[in-house]
Write a structure and sequence with these properties.
The complex is a heterodimer.
Chain A (H helix, E strand, L loop, with lengths): L15 E3 L14 E5 L9 H5 L5 E3 L5 E4 L9 H5 L9 E5 L3
Chain B lengths: L2 E4 L1 H12 L3 E4 L6 H12 L6 E4 L3 H13 L4 E6 H7 L3 H6 L5 E6 L13 H5 L6 E4 L3 H16 L7 E6 L8 E4 L3 H8 L15 E3 L8 H30 L6 E4 L6 E5 L3 H14 L4 E6 L1 E3 L3 H8 L4 E6 L10 H10 L7 E7 L8 H17 L6 E4 L4
Parallel strand pairs in B: 2-3, 2-4, 4-5, 5-7, 6-7, 11-12, 11-14, 14-15, 15-16
Antiparallel strand pairs in B: 1-8, 6-13, 10-12
Classes of the chains: A alpha+beta, B alpha/beta.
């Protein structure tokens, strides 16, 4: 679909654009590793939510962690690294996308 | 109106104190060090409310200025020569983001060889970055122009960064009488800062300076083109208004005894003061000599210059830096281009002079005017471009 491009007089001054444009940029389509969320082990500390650089940790209406938004998760693994759960009861583990 | 004895640097620092900007980020460099050093003293003594950011380089200084201005602050800094060069990666970002930063620049030769004295090569090297450039002839003009630069840069039709320059040592370190404004007058004159964008406004989230490729980069350059056009009128309006309010009027150019002149000199900065003396001398002998001072180099006042010069017979265009392109210096190049297509054009000759602070004396200027007189009489150009005052 052809998008009509704005002329220079229609642009916001100062090379500015309104915020939130990262929502239109799906960073999840070139992931090589993906985090897997294990709900039963999650302690809801929000470390993964706070550290995620792409706001890809999903919370439910009660603000409990419920999973990963794979549309934006680029598989950096920061959530897995920061997750404080014990080795045998991990809330987040990483696996390879291409098997 | 208090009369004070100030060097160019002190006068600029005094203007900064009275403007009381939100943020100053700066790094010292000869001969501009004093401006920010004196200002840092004002900060330390609590006489201004400014947040002073002491940085590790001029690159960081201009980066911090851009950040602070993007956050919605009134921002100022000062530098010279190599410092301006180190800022140059960030300078075009300031204009693209429409940030009205005001920079006190002291003209100093670029290395190499290393030199600390005046020429215009540093300021000329950044002339095409979308910054307004105003050249001051003396400490008074430096003081007045810094105050005006804030008003010009922050004008909603303009919204561009501006640099006001003095000539290194010749103005920056020379003590002169300066008529300053009262603190309250300056406060009223510059007014409250009005931010257009603020990246820290959580109520209106926005992004500035995005990656901008083939589809939008070109469009994002156009506001600079438009603002520079409007800046010409705004500089004139602000200069006239300053005259009405405080008695000293300014323009884009200054015509000195140009009305009936047949020969003239075009110069910028401190050299104009020397040229005035020779013009007066020649007028006393009945020679119709004049001086055209270019005060604003960006935006370039092409029409005004054309109007001033078109009736003359021969004009010496003074350039305190060379472009190394075998076609003369920046001022000459611009004026030759401005005069193209006009019905009348005088003989234009270029004098590249004073590099690295080499003195330009009254005798030198007398000699240049004598050459113009000869050109005017013969109608021929003896030498189109010359490096004046260099030993062979």
């Amino acid at each position: 679909m052809a998008i009509k491009k704005m002329g220079w007089k229609e642009l916001m001054p100062g090379d500015a654009i309104s915020g939130g444009t990262a929502a239109e940029f799906e960073t999840g389509d070139w992931r090589s590793e993906k985090p897997i969320f294990h709900k039963e082990n999650c302690i809801n500390c929000y470390f993964c939510w706070a550290y995620c650089p792409d706001s890809a940790i999903l919370l439910d209406e009660n603000k409990k962690v419920v999973g990963i938004d794979y549309k934006y998760c680029k598989g950096c693994g920061i959530c897995d690294r920061e997750c404080p759960t014990k080795k045998e009861k991990r809330a987040i583990t990483m696996e390879t996308e291409r098997k | 109106m208090p009369r004070i004895a100030r060097t160019g640097n002190e006068a600029m620092a005094e203007a900064m104190r009275q403007i009381n900007p939100h943020v100053v980020a700066a790094y010292p460099i000869t001969p501009a060090t004093e401006i920010v050093m004196i200002f840092a003293g004002f900060v330390a003594n609590g006489v201004v409310d400014t947040q002073f950011v002491a940085v590790e380089s001029e690159h960081s200084a201009m980066s911090a200025c851009v950040g602070a201005a993007a956050a919605g602050c009134r921002v100022m800094t000062g530098t010279s020569s190599q410092g301006l060069q180190l800022m140059s990666e960030i300078l075009p970002i300031a204009s693209a983001l429409a940030l009205p930063i005001v920079l006190c620049e002291v003209n100093r030769a670029l290395s190499g060889p290393i030199n600390i004295h005046c020429d215009h090569s540093d300021t000329m090297a950044v002339r095409d970055f979308g910054w307004i450039q105003i050249f001051a002839e003396n400490a008074q003009e430096a003081y007045d122009s810094v105050l005006q630069a804030v008003v010009i840069a922050e004008n909603m039709q303009v919204r561009l960064p501006a640099m006001v320059t003095t000539d290194g040592f010749i103005i920056s370190h020379c003590m002169e009488r300066v008529e300053a404004l009262e603190d309250a007058e300056v406060k009223k004159y510059v007014g409250e800062f009005k931010a257009v964008n603020s990246v820290l406004d959580v109520g209106k989230p926005l992004t500035m300076g995005c990656l901008d490729l083939q589809d939008y980069y070109f469009e994002h350059k156009m506001p600079i083109v438009e603002s520079m056009k409007k800046a010409k009128d705004v500089i004139l309006e602000v200069g006239l208004d300053f005259g009405k309010q405080f008695g000293r009027e300014y323009g884009l150019v200054e015509n000195y005894k140009m009305d009936d002149a047949e020969i003239a000199m075009v110069a910028m900065g401190s050299t104009c003061g020397t040229a005035r003396v020779v013009v007066d001398e020649l007028r006393g002998k009945g020679v119709k000599a004049g001086l055209l001072k270019v005060r604003a180099f960006r935006p370039f006042p092409a029409e005004e210059i054309k109007q001033s010069l078109s009736k003359l017979k021969s004009v010496a265009i003074m350039d305190r830096s060379d472009m190394f392109k075998n076609q003369g210096g920046q001022v000459f190049t611009e004026i030759r281009s401005a005069m193209y297509g006009g019905a009348n054009s005088p003989i234009l000759t270029n004098y590249i002079y004073g590099l690295g602070g080499r003195e330009i004396s009254l005798d030198d200027i007398r000699k240049i005017f004598a050459e113009q007189k000869k050109n005017a009489e013969s109608g021929e150009v003896s030498q189109l471009i010359q490096h004046f005052g260099v030993r062979i």
